[in-house]
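Crash report, auto-generated. Payload:
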Amino acid sequence: MRLLAADPSVRIEVATAHAQAGKPVEEVHPYLAGRVPLTFVPFDPAAVAGMDCVFIALPSGEAMQIVPALQGKVGCIIDLGGDLRLPTAAMYEHYYKKPHTSPTLLGAAVYGLPELHRAKIRNATLIANPGCYPTSVILALLPAIEAGLISPAGIVVNSLSGVSGAGRSSAVELSFSEVNESVRAYKIGNHQHQPEIRTVLEQVAGTGVTLSFIPHLIPITRGIYTTVHADLRTPVPIADIQKVYADRYRDEPFVRFGTRIPEIRAVTYTNFCDIAVFLEPHTGKLVVTSVIDNLIKGAAGQAIQNMNLVFGRPEHALLK
Amino acid sequence: MRLLAADPSVRIEVATAHAQAGKPVEEVHPYLAGRVPLTFVPFDPAAVAGMDCVFIALPSGEAMQIVPALQGKVGCIIDLGGDLRLPTAAMYEHYYKKPHTSPTLLGAAVYGLPELHRAKIRNATLIANPGCYPTSVILALLPAIEAGLISPAGIVVNSLSGVSGAGRSSAVELSFSEVNESVRAYKIGNHQHQPEIRTVLEQVAGTGVTLSFIPHLIPITRGIYTTVHADLRTPVPIADIQKVYADRYRDEPFVRFGTRIPEIRAVTYTNFCDIAVFLEPHTGKLVVTSVIDNLIKGAAGQAIQNMNLVFGRPEHALLK
Amino acid sequence: MRLLAADPSVRIEVATAHAQAGKPVEEVHPYLAGRVPLTFVPFDPAAVAGMDCVFIALPSGEAMQIVPALQGKVGCIIDLGGDLRLPTAAMYEHYYKKPHTSPTLLGAAVYGLPELHRAKIRNATLIANPGCYPTSVILALLPAIEAGLISPAGIVVNSLSGVSGAGRSSAVELSFSEVNESVRAYKIGNHQHQPEIRTVLEQVAGTGVTLSFIPHLIPITRGIYTTVHADLRTPVPIADIQKVYADRYRDEPFVRFGTRIPEIRAVTYTNFCDIAVFLEPHTGKLVVTSVIDNLIKGAAGQAIQNMNLVFGRPEHALLK
Amino acid sequence: MRLLAADPSVRIEVATAHAQAGKPVEEVHPYLAGRVPLTFVPFDPAAVAGMDCVFIALPSGEAMQIVPALQGKVGCIIDLGGDLRLPTAAMYEHYYKKPHTSPTLLGAAVYGLPELHRAKIRNATLIANPGCYPTSVILALLPAIEAGLISPAGIVVNSLSGVSGAGRSSAVELSFSEVNESVRAYKIGNHQHQPEIRTVLEQVAGTGVTLSFIPHLIPITRGIYTTVHADLRTPVPIADIQKVYADRYRDEPFVRFGTRIPEIRAVTYTNFCDIAVFLEPHTGKLVVTSVIDNLIKGAAGQAIQNMNLVFGRPEHALLK
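Recovered output after restart:
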């Protein structure tokens, strides 16, 4: 809403909520004071019928119950959660620890990564907006996999995320005193973004991919730092690898490929993904680092980028 | 000095400094007010001759000039810098970007990791206190390498460090506004702790080791989080690996091996290293995570642990 | 427990809890791993009868229900909460928003500020350990009020507190993302520590005191920064005021009065309170700043200081 | 530049620098990569002659040397530093610790606080952009002083600032490890923003004003929290005071007056100033709290707001 409210050509018509229904938006989100003069209402499909675009941002398991009631009634549905991203109900159940109750939706949505599916997004009516970690990891690996530079087996991904990635939460382990001045890895081997990353990379590679994805929680509010190690199929000079990446992303409005080591603060509050590649001299492995703002390119910004594509607006509208 | 000052059986006799010489210790370090009633003096070998123990904490290249003047004049020298840690002058020059002017010192010092060299430390008169990153990485890998569980090739180490690891610095890139709410990897492929880690692990393995070490700067003051990926030589159940680690560290006073994923805040302001091991299910790789306080187990605490060993004191004196 | 566990002359016999009963202490508090080999048990007066010392740290309203069952059965009770600190049930009810069910306890406890009541504490069996804000504010004002330097009316107190002051909490407004990179004042005019501060200062002044106490939540874990403005009764040179403070605190083991502007990091993880005084040149007001670690001098450290006094131990035992 | 670069109707023609001259803007400021394709050049009056608008952001003492060379050569000069803000050279020298070498400039610039001088700003060719602290303090007090509600004597101002207020600095005392997890007051009684605040308030009040201004450095990057205590001339119900403030700011696009206690995170990265007023019940004093982003409403945002006014653009252009 913060991003959308800045553009008079976009009108926010309805804001829905559960626990906060009945409260003014600006009471729940003081930074929207004077900018979004709406009151949260309970969700009702009838109230949003006829809208051009509906954004869904719900806990896992809830979007799958709402989407069927909206399909055909609104111009485009963009779901920011994970309910529409995986290919099978079994995979969903394994990682999200709950059954998928609308399995026909799986595969029905376009995976909304513009750098990969821009043409399809332009014609989509149902978009699965990518997860925050997957956005940073897939963009880091896409050129190398497309070009067949790296082995698809044994890829090692270490990602560091700010706390806003967990949503607005009252969990003790996300309280300031537990997070501040600390770091912890979590969900080693079973994070729900692992199969999302793998599914997309396998589609690109046309073959199986195995990767280890280790997420870490660090004491910042916004931002993801991803460091990838992968084995080259055959030795390649770093300059050649850099050329592959530079060519792949030259015309992308929101990917900045360069030779400096990326840092999160360069992308905070923006829709940019900064990427750099290195050859580690002792192991010969390819190292790729990427950074995004998990709330922008990793969530709301990418959703707006998709909205812009669907509605024929400039792709960077509202995003710079 | 903060740690040493708490024990009446230890007397801090002399505190030396360059730029701060002439100032009371408590003016430079307000938290020592009322605890260390000394004034910094310029370094002078004569002034410290006869001391039981001398701690050296200087920028690289300086300890090598001082140690020869102290040898034989004091009971024990514990150097917290990197001048005495590497085996050859060539390796030193490559990573520290300056020549080693006292190459005869290389190999003369005991590498002060009690978990590896406790017996030698007890009789040492010259100790190279381990680097902060190496402490966290070596302790994470030691049992697996000793037991021959993992391949010594292609080990991937991602470490995250708090800012105090860089010392007291006026560099713009360590200013609050540049570090806060950000993360950046640095010295990819050429950090001076890589050869230190590799040298120690190769001595343990009795063979060559290759590893990629990627350090990251994160916005905390104290703490290191290390996440290691290594390939098992042959598949082994996780319980067996846990047993190897538990047995190896059972009697270590400052290593806590467990099954919980470590977090930095559990070790801040302590000399503990917390370690846990996992089998990543998609790649089959061994994942080890370890945490230390870089200023305690990664520096001053380990130096005091070494001092305790040298002087026959309880190993945990001053450290709990 | 972290502080107590470091001294072999102290034995932690029982640790009680409600929701966490049945869990090992080190599971709830990983930093105590290997240091406190106890399991939390539900509170039971019989289980603690005969102990030398019982520390109570409970939400407001609960200590008042437990203390009567313990009186006479244990050597000394030290309550870290607010149930025993105020003089009247009416005042308690007004600020704590609940009735006081054991009003006979009010006035029965010694207010455990050693700098004010050391002799009484030595003989106490029931101690009301001071609140964190009151400790920092009372120590800042004590010498000036005792010496009659300032007017007791219209004192302005601005205090900044780290988040640990709120206890271990799952409140959304204490989550990392809501606290980080932000500040907010709270409970303007109705914080429960205002009457505690006022009551103590009025006892010292022998007359009524009015003060405005504005607490602010800031994004640090530990520490309180207090800045006080007060009107001098008559103009006094700053040197004279400094002498009053220096004389008052000369022999106090945990108050460091000086001329430098205090900073929180000098007292973090210590039992010290650092204080300085200034004359503001434009208004002529006395400005006093003080800092403490709210978890040490503002809570557990002061409780141990009191325990040391009660049991004739060195006052700084366990605290340096 | 970040703000200006988002609007195609604004063209950044020249970016000047001293030490960084010759470097691409995006090398010095990575977050501007792909957005500001300029290289820093040394300052040269000839190179900027003919520009519509010149922004000056220099250390104190430098703008006063440049402004005379630009007057009459460019459309409008907006100085973000302190050289043009004070009324007399003596006052400048006292607080900035250096002589003012262009005293004829004093009084020549319009003080660029739109809420106070909007009409004058529209016609200005030389604007002194207000300091960050003064913006937050003056907006907090303006309605109360204009309406004669408070006594102009003995006003107490406590302000908390993020570290970016000190500029891009390599000072050790602004390094992460010294600022993080700490707070310190500084320049008690002699901060250069005190006379700026006082000068403006005295113009509004038409009489002398005395105030104590205590700035504190806190560990956030952006934001100022100001808490003011003032004595009411005569008792007034809080509702009446709220009405005075609400009326005064009703049509201001960037002041949000409300009844909630302000918090910094509601204004970060925006040009808003949030304000609330309270009657402290024990002292009867008026308490006003205000928050701004020191880099936006406290600096660059307000400069752009002034530019918008000068050039007849919508006042909120580029700022929401």
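Post-recovery validation: The CA atoms of residues 55 and 78 of chain A lie 5 Å apart.
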